[in-house]
Specification:
heterodimer; A: six-stranded mixed β-sheet; 11 strands; 0% helix; B: seven-stranded mixed β-sheet
Chain lengths: 111, 119
């Protein structure tokens, strides 16, 4: 059973703080990792993907990947109330054929 | 990013009727599309993988005769909920995948979703 696990939250941070979202996965052969944001009542939208160990930065977002620990995280700097949403971690396995989504972490950014 | 559309965005129907939902990749060709269902405050549930020109692959517990999937072209997949009942009311979301080398081409891009309400 391939699994992607996330803390369901809610994670509450004050405006301007760094929000740290974490994800672990069970398939050591996974190659591609994705973070999606989903607002209530809307479909997921891609934030970023990462496939190499280390950090990848895009604006206020930084994805961190540690394949040895089977761990991927998303940092959101200078959190804004508009960042309040559910963040989904997704992992490709089976040569990229299938994507497994985590259940998501709900983030609240307090103004 | 790639654009995926869905139609209709919202549908209300009577119990027993069939509802067709279209998913289109607007600016790329998608050999693989996925259909998800999401109930309120729950996570995405993959229903089936739709492959262009072949039969869809359904996840365990998903009735293929009830949820008919057709992927007739590289830009269009349809999901038909046959004989819909109130318990089928949900948020149905499709996604399309660019396939090939590199993670950017393994990314799923989601449509805006279709909210189905069966009375």
């Amino acid at each position: 059973q391939k699994e992607v696990e996330q803390n369901s939250g809610p994670l509450s941070v004050p405006e301007g703080a760094i929000a740290s979202l974490n994800c672990t996965y069970s398939d050591r052969g996974s190659q591609s990792f994705f973070w999606y944001r989903q607002y209530s009542g809307k479909s997921p939208e891609l934030i970023m993907f990462i496939y190499s160990n280390g950090d990848k930065e895009d604006g206020r977002f930084t994805a961190q990947l540690n394949k040895a620990s089977q761990y991927v995280s998303l940092l959101i700097r200078d959190s804004q109330p508009s960042d309040s949403a559910t963040y989904l971690c997704a992992v490709n396995w089976g040569g990229g054929f299938k994507t497994i989504f985590g259940a998501g972490t709900r983030l609240f950014v307090k103004a | 990013g790639a654009v995926v559309s869905q139609h209709p965005s919202r549908v209300i129907c009577k119990s027993g009727t069939s509802v067709k939902i279209e998913c289109r990749s607007l600016d790329f060709q998608a050999t693989t599309m996925f259909w998800y269902r999401q109930f309120p405050k729950q996570s995405l549930m993959l229903m089936a993988t739709s492959n262009e020109g072949s039969k869809a692959t359904y996840e365990q517990g998903v009735e293929k005769d009830k949820f008919l999937i057709n992927h007739a072209s590289l830009t269009l997949s349809t999901l038909t909920v046959t004989s819909a009942h109130p318990e089928d009311s949900s948020f149905y979301i499709c996604s399309a995948k660019l396939t090939g080398e590199g993670a950017s081409l393994d990314t799923q891009y989601f449509g805006p979703g279709t909210r189905l309400t069966v009375l």
